[in-house]
Amino acid sequence: MITRKDFLKQVSAVSAGIGLCGLTPLTAYSAQSRNRVLTIMHTNDTHARIDPFPAGSGEYAGLGGAARRAALIKKLRDKRPNNLLLDAGDTFQGTPYFNFYGGALDFEIMSMMGYDASTIGNHEFDNRVEGFVEVAPKAQFPFVISNYDFTGAPDMGAFCRPYMIRDVDGIRVGLFGIGVAFEALVLPQLHEGVEYREPIAVSERMVRTLRADYACDLVVCLSHIGYEYETDQVSDRDVAEAVDGIDLIIGGHTHTLLEEPSLIEKPGQLPTIISQVGHAGVVLGHLDFEFSPSGKIARISSAHHTIA
Question: Which pTM value belongs to this model?
Answer without folding.
Answer: 0.91
